[in-house]
Amino acid sequence: MLWQQCLQQLEQEVPDSEINTWLRALHAVEKRQALYLLAPNTIVLQQVHEQYLPRILFHSRIITGDNEFDVMLQIGSSVPTAPPALLTTPLQQPRYPQAQALSPHDEWNPVPLTHTQATAAAPTPAPISERFTNSLNPRMAFANFVEGKSNQLACAAAQQVGDQADTTYNPMFIYGGVGLGKTHLMHAIGNRILEREPGARVIYVYAERFVNDMISAIRNSRMEEFKQHYRSLDALLIDDIQFFAGKDRSMEEFFHTFNALLEGQKRIILASDKFPRDLDGIEDRLKTRFNWGLTVQIESPDLETRVAILRKKAEDVGLHLPNDVSFFIGKRFHSNIRDLEGALQRVIASMRLKCVTTISMDFVHNALRDQLASQDKMVSMSNIKKIVAQYYNIRLTDMDSKNRARCFARPRQIAMALSKELTNHSLPEIGDEFGGRDHTTVLHAQRKVVELRESDPKIEEEYRILFRTLTS
Ligand SMILES: Nc1ncnc2c1ncn2[C@@H]1O[C@H](COP(=O)(O)OP(=O)(O)OP(=O)(O)O)[C@@H](O)[C@H]1O
Predict the structure, then answer these.
(1) Where do the record's region annotations for Domain IV, binds dsDNA lie (predicted)?
(2) Which pTM value belongs to this model?
């Protein structure tokens, strides 16, 4: 179908989070030689109009080979029966009133779009039950998920949750840093449930969306419908659960939804950037419940996993990545998989643009020049020393001093370990930078930090924070 083909193209250009939030929220209908995209509310309408419509039109015209092909964006769940003359190409004339201030919250009620269209049959708001069809991304399947030390446990648990009809691990809570594969695993679980039970009512939704939908439901006196919708699911997958923080009414509603689903032995899969207990602003009774089932962490991938992911993604588009290239990209883009993917996509786009078919290190350096330059600025040894010193509240000179008191030695060791991990400097070079120390001191520091990270969760957390600060 045209819309699916368009989405596939857009997936190469737009982050998954945006595809899931905005573009998968649209209901597509091909009619009268045009593609009608029906948005459930004005927020989606506006966002799609402002951010994606030109690209959608571009891809539709390429795919259909028809330069006159139109894309119509409007609110509703079905294409109005109004004569086509009333509908104008959205690129020339937006289908919502620019001057009318849009509410920051979703509106389920239709708003008049343009003067002409307001006189036509008003589109009906999407029934809540139809709003999440197609909320799962089929590309985010277990088959496309590369396993490594950092995600093995989470992946095995997710497969079990997806495979099992019983709800032993309920809820499943996945947590970890940005871009490490939480959303991918959630979709994979949802897709697996649907493979097993094709008729199951499974939805994936961002917590933000749940909140916005609830606000709209309250405004439009459709709360019963909202409750009924969420409570009648077979599996509810909610991402970025930290977004509930401080939103008491939403938490209250989610609490009841959660209980109803759990009592009905329905699946709940949640994801967040933090361990449940550490979620600030979330009610304790929810945090406790999040921990009732199975809580798993996804960690930053090691180099081997990053390289394996790169190779898989390159193979998927028929590209062979030489060893030196995959290790180079894997080493330089270490903070998360989204960045890693982004780097690969940039290289591929450059190859297409320049009609290059084989890939060399020179080509990669050139394609990623800007990203590498900005990384270099962040992860120079002097910057590592500065940021670590600031974090532990010591002076920069303490990084180089001979003072072996733990309050100085520990940050120094951490800075050395970070320098080894984040730069290409050799052990002697790092030793030189830290007050002329011997390379064996750096090696010792590096090993000590590995040991401490494994035995002391506080050090592990501190290291991660510093790592993220330096690499994001
Ligand atoms: N192990 C993996 N194998 C293959 N692709 C992966 C893997 N982990 C993540 N990805 C890909 O990396 C990108 C980012 O992953 P995802 O969106 O799941 O991250 P996230 O942890 O949910 O991030 P955020 O917290 O920002 O929402 C996606 O395109 C996903 O398919």
Answers:
(1) 352-472
(2) 0.64
Can you say whether the dihedral through the CA atoms of 460, 461, 462, 468 is positive or negative? Answer: positive
CB of 16 closer than 6 angstroms to any ligand 1 atom: yes
The CA distance from 20 to 43, in Å, is: 14
**Binding site listing for ATP:** 179, 181-183
Asked if residue 17 has its Cβ within 6 Å of ligand 1, the reply is yes
In whole angstroms, what is the distance from residue 370 CA to residue 461 CA?
Answer: 30
DSSP 344-402: HHHHHHHHHHTT--S--HHHHHHHTHHHHHHHHHHT-HHHHHHHHHHHTT--THHHHS-
Kindly indicate whether the ipTM for this predicted assembly is greater than 0.85, answering yes or no: yes
Residue 259 in contact with residue 176, Cβ under 8 Å? no
Which one, of 240, 241, 205, 226, lies nearest residue 22 by Cα? 205
User: Is residue 169 within 8 Å of 293, Cβ to Cβ?
Assistant: yes
* Cβ of 260 below 6 Å from ligand 1: no
User: Does ligand 1 come within 6 angstroms of the Cβ of 140?
Assistant: yes
C-alpha 145 to ligand 1 mean position (Å): 9
Q: End-to-end CA distance of the chain, in Å?
A: 38
Which CATH number is correct for 379-471, 3.10.420.10, 3.40.640.10, 3.30.390.60, 1.10.1750.10? 1.10.1750.10
Domains in the chain: boundaries: 2-126, 142-298, 303-376, 379-471
What separation in Å is there between the alpha carbon of 28 and the centre of ligand 1? Answer: 26
Which atom, in ligand 1's list, is nearest to the CA of 15?
A: 29
Asked if residue 93 has pLDDT above 50, the reply is no
Residue ID of nearest Cα to ligand 1 atom 17: 183
Candidate CATH numbers 3.30.1330.60, 3.90.550.10, 3.40.50.300, 3.30.1360.120; the one for domain 142-298: 3.40.50.300
pLDDT at 69 over 80: no
* Rounded CA separation 316/312 (Å): 6
